[in-house]
Write a structure and sequence with these properties.
single chain; 831 residues; alpha/beta; seven-stranded mixed β-sheet; 24 strands
């Protein structure tokens, strides 16, 4: 036995006798590395084995008792030390009681050189020859095992990892780096170019702080150098950098190269202190998101242990055909390379494979749901061309080409023998309700029932009025309904009228009901519900829509939205629905004229409002907050309504609407505005959806930079609903905010679909998802806007489900398991 391994043998045997309490060496076993590494190299041990032993010994103090025993036996295996490989595990050692040492006792203990030392009498140290009894968490329990089963992770570390939502081994395996530092091809500061996103290695030459002319703005400036050149790093109002950065500290710095007064600078760069061993790797090094009291180096080592142990054991769920045809890296390799890539091309392949998986499982879920809905039996409803043409010609206006196309899609679905499951998306004012009403008329013509659900009472009333005009007009000889066959059921409906409506729905005498969430309550029973229309579908949860649909036997379903859905989302998140698009406005509508106005120019806006009101029109003024105090920098509706009424428009009537009002109060305010009892309506964002006030021609949005693009477009859609010229005025909080990208986009186009794509690229899909969060939240690497990848993946998902719709074939068992795991519940948006 060589000298270096014999030393470990003696120390490890003694540590075993001490019950793995890290007392066999003065200062702990980690002190061994100070001298042992040189001896090991002198004995000719391989550098790889030396590094493995050193890493294990450095982690030894942070391990629990079970992990320590396991580690020493593992070192025995690495170095092939007889006797150490077969050390007793902690729960096999003799369980002796803890004893107080005699005042004159001396115990054998070694120093880091492996020499005996004596612990002199008089010591009050307590020692146990056995470990504290703890559960054997180090034993393998599969990938679902808690993080404490990973060597080097104890209870304290597991609590810190929990803050990152890392609870199991699997969580750690799928905790992908947020970026990488590529030490394989380092860039020198002298070679940096303006506009590059780079990572450089440099030491801190100086760090200073100074105030700008704005006394509330403090700049922290560090000058860093790599001896080929220097670059400034700057942070605004982030003084904690002063506590962290020190002169001569060596850093890995990542950021974009900008220019300030002709010199290179990085604003708010990411940085990490770098140790020499990290630099010497010459590798691509992963950088993970952290939480307080977790170091990058420690987390990287723990994830390395997990990847080494588990990546190769993850079963491949993708079929061999798809792997080969799509040229995909195998799953085990992808998991290794995403964390610790050998080369940049390998990293790209790993990212592509894992992003492919995410979109594939998302597609499988929605397409499988679509298939399951399609095999249900639905009642077919067929009408002849002559009857349908008569209903269209009876309208007060001509349908657009888009409306005719969507009506044709509805007609085909209704006659298919399968329940319709369609999303109707159209920009504000495109005429969705008219076409939905024609679909309802086809069904109720046969004596069946329909229901229309809206998110608010005021919107339900609007639908009731328009549907009554279109379907139950007493002047229309061909009307499909009589006036008493179409009813409104909302919170304000009287008890007597409610009972009458419930009775009529149950016996079938009422054919169409329009309402709010009141429609899904238990007392509502239909005799034969065959078509359901849900307006502003993102305002309703899965359970609400399911409850309404369950009141019929596989009724036809149309969900409508005025928020245009970008194509990539229509193919993924909404892939279980057939999508109809209305991308054409009715003739006679003028585009709303949109302008960005500086805060100092408000008087011009007030003049515009006065002139429009004088001509018999009305105006909206939107504020981001209800009351001052929510955010002192932003104007608030309550205070501004009072100021506008008393100081700016004392001769006009200014109403107030906000979310803190009771629903009945909100509906009352909107009715007064609709009936022209108010000239101006001051409101918060509650006015965003569905309100139809054709007489309103001015929409003023204060603090416009605080709203999302989809929201701004919805506000604009509240005006321009007649043939009169309308205006949308965007007033940012500051003159600087006038250059806001969203506001400039609003000024440049009225096309909701163009704005939706812009919003998706800028802010992600949150605005469009509504209740469809479940699948999307599992996307770690895939970009939901990557239409090219989505179309590729969709082709393979279709192929799989066409051949095996239930995923019951043996080759698809693992694929089905992966899909069910990806989708936490079986419910999608329409279920």
């Amino acid at each position: 036995m060589q000298r270096s391994t014999e030393k470990l043998y003696k120390i490890f045997k003694l540590e075993s006798e001490f019950g793995y309490t890290n007392k066999a060496v003065v200062g702990g076993l980690e002190k061994l590395t100070d001298t042992w590494v040189g001896e090991a190299r002198a004995d000719g041990l391989s550098e790889d084995d030396i590094q493995k032993v050193t890493a294990a010994l450095n982690e030894y103090p942070s391990m629990d008792i079970q992990g320590r025993g396991h580690t020493l036996r593992e070192i025995g295996h690495i170095l092939d030390i007889p006797g150490i490989k077969y050390l007793e595990s902690p729960n096999q050692t003799e369980q002796k009681p803890v004893r107080e040492e005699p005042p004159y006792a001396s115990d054998k203990i070694m120093d880091s050189q492996g020499h005996n030392k004596t612990e002199h009498r008089g010591s009050t140290r307590k020692r146990s020859n056995s470990p504290v009894p703890i559960p054997d968490e180090a034993s393998p329990a599969g990938i679902k095992a808690p993080v404490t089963s990973v060597r080097g992770i104890g209870q304290k570390q597991s609590q810190l990892l929990a803050k990152l939502d890392l609870h199991t081994v699997e969580d750690m395996l799928y905790y992908f780096p947020r970026r990488y530092d590529d030490y394989s091809e380092l860039k020198l500061i002298k070679d940096l170019k303006y506009g590059e996103e780079v990572t450089v290695l440099a030491y801190v030459k100086s760090i200073t702080t100074f105030n700008t002319r704005n006394k509330n703005r403090k700049i922290i400036q560090a000058i860093v150098s790599d001896d080929t050149g220097s670059i400034q790093l700057m942070w605004f109002n982030q003084e904690y950098h002063l506590r962290y950065l020190r002169k001569n500290m060596f850093l890995s710095i990542s950021g974009k190269v900008e220019q300030y007064m002709g010199r290179h600078v990085m604003y708010h760069p990411d940085y990490e202190q770098v140790e020499k061993d990290q630099l010497n790797t010459k590798r691509i090094v992963p950088v993970y998101a952290l939480t307080a009291r977790l170091s990058q180096k420690w987390l990287r080592r723990m994830i390395f242990n997990v990847v080494n142990e588990w990546a190769a054991k993850i079963p491949e769920f993708m079929t061999e055909y798809i792997l080969e045809d799509a040229d995909l890296m195998d799953l085990s390799s992808a998991l290794k390379e995403i964390h610790f890539p050998e080369t940049v091309p390998d990293l790209k392949k790993a990212r592509y494979r894992l992003a492919f998986d995410e979109i594939f499982l998302l597609q499988l879920g929605v397409l499988k749901q679509k298939y399951e809905w399609s095999i249900q039996k639905g009642h077919p409803y067929e009408v002849d061309d002559e009857w349908l043409v008569s209903r269209i010609t009876n309208l007060d206006f001509s349908l657009t080409h888009a409306q005719m196309r969507v009506l044709s899609e509805f007609r085909k679905d209704l006659n298919s023998g399968q329940p319709m499951n369609r999303l109707l998306q159209g920009d504000v004012g495109s005429g969705k309700t008219v076409v939905a009403a024609l679909a309802v008329s086809i069904v109720v013509k046969y004596g069946a029932q329909g229901a229309v659900m809206a998110p608010t009472s005021i919107l339900a009333e609007q639908h009731y009025a328009s549907l009554k005009r279109q379907l139950a007009n007493h002047e229309d000889e061909g009307a499909v309904l009589k006036e008493d066959q179409i009813r409104l059921l909302i919170g304000d409906t009287s008890a007597k009228e409610r009972e009458e409506i419930l009775s009529g729905l149950a016996d079938g005498s009422i054919k169409l009901v329009i309402g709010t969430h009141a429609l899904i309550e238990d007392p509502v029973v239909f005799e034969n519900l065959q078509i359901v229309i849900v307006d502003e579908q993102h305002r309703f949860g899965v359970a609400q829509r399911a409850a309404l649909r369950d009141k019929g036997e596989n009724p036809h379903l149309i969900v409508m939205t005025a928020t245009p859905i970008p194509r990539s989302l229509a193919l993924t998140i909404y892939g279980d629905l057939d999508v109809s698009v209305m991308d054409e406005m009715p003739p006679g509508r003028q585009p709303v004229e949109t302008h960005i106005v500086y805060p100092t120019e408000r008087e011009r806006v007030y003049t515009l409002i006065r002139s429009q009101v004088k001509n018999g029109h009305q105006a909206f003024i939107i504020y981001p907050l209800v009351e001052q105090g929510d955010n002192e920098e932003s104007k608030a509706a309550v205070e501004e309504q009072e100021r506008l009424q008393q100081e700016i428009f004392p001769d006009l009537k200014v109403g107030l609407l906000h979310g803190r009002l009771h629903p009945d109060e909100k509906d009352g305010v909107m009715r007064k505005f609709r009936d022209r009892e108010y000239d101006i309506l001051v409101s918060t964002s509650v006015v965003e959806v569905g309100v139809d006030i054709p007489n309103a021609t001015v929409m003023v949005i204060e603090g416009a930079n605080r709203f999302g693009l989809a929201q701004l477009h919805q506000f604009r859609g509240r005006v321009g609903r007649s043939s009169d010229k309308s205006y949308c005025i965007l007033i940012p909080e500051t003159s600087e905010a006038a250059e806001n990208e969203r506001l400039l986009a609003m000024e440049s186009t009225n096309d909701g679909f163009v704005l939706a794509e812009h919003d998706l690229n800028q802010r992600g899909p949150g605005e469009f998802l509504g209740t469809r969060q479940s699948g999307y939240t599992n996307l770690r690497l895939a970009n939901i806007t990557d239409i090219h990848l989505i179309e590729i993946v969709q082709r393979y998902a279709h192929q799989v489900l066409e051949n095996d719709p239930t995923l019951s074939a043996n080759e698809h068992q693992l694929m089905r398991d992966a899909m069910e795991k990806f989708w936490p519940t079986a419910e999608g948006d329409i279920s």
